[in-house]
């Protein structure tokens, strides 16, 4: 009886209410980049990034099926996770809406397979896509890390739909 009631509740979870609950989980913020048609840079803000495995070195992130950049990530087998610093909020906002001009005025260098490594990032992971998994209205990308870098810049955070910065260590 209880099990059936639980199932009914699960099918009725409202996507906006779910997003609100997930927003309680504070994250960092990344800009994930790759190369599109004609070698043009492509990128989007993403906080679905997480670690998977140290040995072998694997990470994952998920991409909305409706995102205009989906085709580029499907076709180009490498991407860069740019972990963003607290000064880069405006840059991240620029990468969080569709535009053909996201890289105008953005400083970057081509990574191992050409995908953009952003100068403003506090750390970067250059990855090769090893698996794409269907995940409801998103596609999960598992990447094998091929090169890493980091700086001392403080990270940008995201919590309850808002950008934030680190407070005191506990
Ligand atoms: C903080 C933050 C985190 C986001 N995380 C993701 C994510 O993990 N996956 C995703 O598909 N979109 C995410 N988005 C939304 C995309 O950045 C946005 O839809 C963007 O327009 C996608 O790029 P495109 O339109 O060039 O495809 C996030 C947006 C913000 C502001």
Number of strands: 12
Major β-sheet, in short? 7 strands, antiparallel
- The level-1 CATH class: Mainly Beta
Ions, cofactors and other bound molecules: flavin mononucleotide
Instruction: Give the CA-based shape.
Output: globular
CATH superfamily: Electron Transport, Fmn-binding Protein, Chain A
Alpha-beta classification: alpha+beta
Radius of gyration using CA atoms only: 17 Å
Beta-strand content estimate: 35-45%
- The residue fraction in helices comes out at 10-25%
pLDDT averaged over residues: 93
Q: How many domains, as an integer?
A: 1
Strand order of the largest sheet: 3-2-6-9-10-5-4
Overall description:
This protein is an alpha+beta fold and 170 residues long. The chain has one domain: Pnp Oxidase, Chain A (Roll). The chain is 18% helix and 44% strand. A hairpin with a 5-residue loop joins strand 2 and strand 3. The N and C termini lie far apart (44 Å). It binds flavin mononucleotide. The site of flavin mononucleotide has 17 residues, from strand 3 and strand 5.
Describe how the helices and strands are arranged:
Layout: H1 2-11, H2 15-22, E1 27-28, E2 30-35, E3 41-46, E4 50-53, E5 58-64, H3 70-75, E6 78-84, H4 89-94, E7 108-110, E8 116-118, E9 121-135, E10 138-150, E11 156-159, E12 162-165
Antiparallel strand pairs: 1-11, 2-3, 2-6, 4-5, 5-10, 6-9, 7-8, 9-10, 11-12
Bound molecules: flavin mononucleotide (FMN).
């Amino acid at each position: 009886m209880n099990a059936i009631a639980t199932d009914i509740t699960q099918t009725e979870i409202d996507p906006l209410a779910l997003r609100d609950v997930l927003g309680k989980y504070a994250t960092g913020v990344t800009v994930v980049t790759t190369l599109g048609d004609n070698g043009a840079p492509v990128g989007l803000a993403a906080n679905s990034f997480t670690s998977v495995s140290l040995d072998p070195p694997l990470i994952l992130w998920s991409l909305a099926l409706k995102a205009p950049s989906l085709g580029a990530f499907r076709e180009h087998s490498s991407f860069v996770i740019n972990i963003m610093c607290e000064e880069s909020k405006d840059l991240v906002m620029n990468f969080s809406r569709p535009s053909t001009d996201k890289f105008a005025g953005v400083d970057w260098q081509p990574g191992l397979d050409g995908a953009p490594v952003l100068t403003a990032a506090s750390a970067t992971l250059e990855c090769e896509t090893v698996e794409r998994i269907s995940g409801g209205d998103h596609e999960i990308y598992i990447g094998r890390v091929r090169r890493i870098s980091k700086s001392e810049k403080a990270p940008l955070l995201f919590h309850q739909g808002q950008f934030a910065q680190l407070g005191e260590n506990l």
